[in-house]
Amino acid sequence: MQLVLERCTIRPGQLNDAESLARHANNRKVWLALRDLFPHPYTIQDANEFLQRTINEQPAMKFCIEIEGAAVGGIGVHPGEDVHRDTATVGYWLGEEFWGCGIMTEAVTAVTDFCFENFPLRRISAEVFANNPASARVLEKAGFIFEGRLKNNVLKDGELLDSLLYARTK
Fold first, then answer.
1. Would you tell me the crossing angle of helices 133-141 and 103-118 to the nearest 10 degrees?
2. pLDDT of residue 39
3. Pick from 81, 93, 101, 132: CA 20 to 30 A from residue 108's CA?
4. Which among 24, 70, 63, 71 is positioned nearest to 43, based on CA atoms?
5. Phi and psi of 78, rounded to 5°?
6. Ramachandran bin of 150, using left for φ above 0, alpha for ψ from -120 to 50, beta for the remaining angles
7. 3-state secondary structure of 109
8. What interhelical angle do 18-25 and 44-55 show, nearest 10?
9. Residue 72 · residue 94 · CB < 8 Å
10. Nearest partner of 107 among 78, 131, 73, judged by Cα
């Protein structure tokens, strides 16, 4: 899949993306908004391992966000299993220098639309930390509806946080 959008391109990762991904991902501000599975510091080895895993994934569900020929972020769709088989979750990140430009709203909207059109999904959800209003706004602008606050749901960087649950349905 490749989606050429107004502000960015969503495409599969390539091995030569490792340096750019590591440069943009190795940022504490980026890490603070993500799950702990996303390493910090984020090294070139982390980028290479991620790209190796995703390049071989079928169907491809994790993509790079490209701006001006460089991979500067990522977006992934994680299909549900068992009774959640017709649902998925979406997660995303973007290099700090590109925050506030509408790029992530465009990417989340396009990837969600693509998934609804190409996979038998009826619901795509996302959870953001309550201390990240910019990410919540991305979801709202991408057509996701706020469904609830999950109290004391995550421990991030030693701080107990609520999560905000958003979803978009078909």
1. 50
2. 97
3. 81
4. 24
5. -115, 105
6. beta
7. helix
8. 120
9. yes
10. 73
